[in-house]
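Write out the bound-state structure for magnesium ion.
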Amino acid sequence: MATFAARKKSVEKEKRHIAILGSTGSIGTQALEVLEANSDFFELEVITAQSNSDLLIAQAKKFRPNTVVIGDENKYSEVNDALFPLGIKVFAGQDALAQVVEMEPIDMVLTALVGYAGLRPTIAAIKAGKQIALANKETLVVAGDLITRLAAEYGVNILPVDSEHSAIFQCLVGEFHNPIEKIYLTASGGPFRGKKRDELLHITKAQALKHPNWVMGAKITIDSATLMNKGLEVIEAKWLFNLRQDQIDVIVHPQSIIHSIVQFEDGSMKAQMGLPDMKLPIQFALGYPQRLKSDFERFNFANYANLTFEKPDYNTFRNLQFAFDALQKGGNAACVLNAANEIAVEAFLKDEIGFLAMSDLIAHCTDKVSFVAKPNYEDYVQSDEETRRIATQYLN
Ligand code: NDP
Ligand code: MG
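---
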């Protein structure tokens, strides 16, 4: 029996042990589907949510992770009462989030939580030597310099989950020694593609929440409507692939079939394509370097007579230009951009400001928040706080 137990343990250790931060969100729930379909390959150790205790409890009962974290401390008793009898450990609060990622059995942390909240646990996970499957692009936007330095120092891979960055990464497999000349990030253009500023004045929350090709969490859906999502992705790409700003271009491709393109120094371009389904990039990051077999729907050329491309409209969608400006400025500029945008999106979702006013708020913060040329972690925390304070004053 002892031999059997030892063997079982060693087989289990061959599996990849995963923590999912933000398991109740759009990326988190799809990641659980990927794990369920590949249970020979993955073992779930940790799941977390901010306030959706019902879904977190249901997920824990189904997937039996070792540990769960609920961000909202008021919900601790409810979650603990439901899961303690099953032998599942329950913790609450932001500190717990940064601590659970350090747990010994975890091999890889999927950061599927939204916003600035991802920064601290991602740093903790890197320092604990865990591989990162990164969906939480805000972390790289806020502190890309710090995160990439830490990842190099601790020998940690940051594997992109964002579909465009996964596409670029997939194009680079086998090419890591060949310099990139340029990348083209594709953008669907969002629900308001082709519209001008006067047509966007009275856009409602409901209209902005309808994305043509992807079903996602509320924040990224609004970011996609303003093209801020693409702006954040430009900054994310800079850090993931060590690029200069002039090596990154954005091209609108409304069908969302080509997920992005790399151009090499001989002029050759490689693109990755497929139907828009986040499960594929999630699975590629979690399973890397293996491509796990899947039954995801396959692309059929007969259904797409045209794949089209156009230039983004930087005058109407000012946020995309702001992101390039922040990249140019460097220092804490992207951290300020991110915080201002989080406040702007929150205010828009609460019907406190209009669609175009989101960009006004961001421009105001960019103007007012103190510039730090070489920020450390504390500087990022302070810049984030200062921006939120200035943004909130502007709104009141
Ligand atoms: P969702 O809003 O659907 O889910 C967010 C998750 O994070 C939920 O589990 C939520 O818990 C949790 N959460 C929210 N706020 C906090 C907080 N302050 N602290 C800790 N946890 C928190 O977002 P998405 O899944 O759409 O996006 C997640 C990340 O992935 C984002 O950074 C996004 O940009 C990125 N991404 C998403 C894509 C998509 O298709 N959705 C595509 C590419 C990137 P609760 O449910 O309790 O609120
Ligand atoms: Mg994307």
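---
The chain has a mean pLDDT of 96.
The longest strand covers residues 42-49.
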